[in-house]
Amino acid sequence: xxxxxxxxxxxxxxxxxxxxxxxxxxxxxxxxxxxxxxxxxxxxxxxxxxxxxxxxxxxxxxxxxxxxxxxxxxxxxxxxxxxxxxxxxxxxxxxxxxxxxxxxxxxxxxxxxxxxxxxxxxxxxxxxxxxxxxxxxxxxxxxxxxxxxxxxxxxxxxxxxxxxxxxxxxxxxxxxxxxxxxxxxxxxxxxxxxxxxxxxxxxxxxxxxxxxxxxxxxxxxxxxxxxxxxxxxxxxxxxxxxxxxxxxxxxxxxxxxxxxxxxxxxxxxxxxxxxxxxxxxxxxxxxxxxxxxxxxxxxxxxxxxxxxxxxxxxxxxxxxxxxxxxxxxxxxxxxxxxxxxxxxxxxxxxxxxxxxxx
Length: 358
Ligand code: ASP
What we know:
Elements: H1 3-15, E1 31-38, H2 51-56, E2 66-75, H3 82-98, E3 102-108, H4 114-124, E4 131-134, H5 147-159, E5 168-172, E6 175-178, E7 183-184, E8 193-194, E9 202-205, E10 208-211, E11 236-240, H6 248-255, E12 260-265, H7 275-284, E13 288-293, H8 314-322, E14 324-325, H9 331-342, H10 348-357
Parallel strand pairs: 1-2, 1-3, 3-4, 4-5, 11-12, 12-13, 13-14
Antiparallel strand pairs: 5-6, 6-9, 7-8, 9-10
This protein binds aspartic acid.
């Protein structure tokens, strides 16, 4: 190797920040708590695996972390209630607060609604230590079960010091995605979890846990959402926009007691049929609406109220005055942020601030 090349490599190594080291150190002595909630990862034919049985599946686990296990639930992800969400977040917060030496927490979940549970934890766990959410696409009785491999990777991510401060992380298939952005993109394939538009935060490979991106938006230890005194989450529904959609669905959820509605709008915020009038109906009754996009990625841009002289119909003006833009949050994530926002405020300006900070 020429001297110039050698010198260049030396300079490069010297200027790389610690977090980008190529083979990040694994910490076998790090303690990690597994909190199991169920899902396909434990759905063995003839009886679901318990949290303890799950950790026994991972070969040479003590090379990576010291794992303690507890069972929170053992159900499909879509069966978890909003009250269980509150309890799960309170449990994770409690476990981290009572044990300052714990490196991180791993939560198993069914994959169907995993992205929602993970984002809820991302906004409500008040700690810099990682919360890693993991699942599997094949059950333990299926040839090619990948649950043990995913679990091993999740434990390694939770044990890794470089995972601190990144919020809730979703680990499957050797990839680390942020809970804020990850989506299940395929109903059956193993590579289903992806972050459309931005890509993975990092990878779990043979040589270690490596990050290539960081989270800029507020979460976990920088979050203002404190569930300590919260006993119930406000009802927020998601309404899809499609050609000719009737606004009476929106009116129904308002009449049923929703405090907020997330509209999964066409393109960058369009509604169809009679939905616009129904959104005005919601606003008149104090129900907040957040406009998000049904496209799967991209932003809905916050709008300024146009000056009166432009002659805009009153209903449309009202909608713009009340409208909250989800920006780049997918409809299901925007619903969670709106639910949490409504536990703290009923001021539209405050809710808009939250949508631009989280
Ligand atoms: N139906 C399962 C669930 O979400 C799917 C899975 O775990 O992958 O619980």
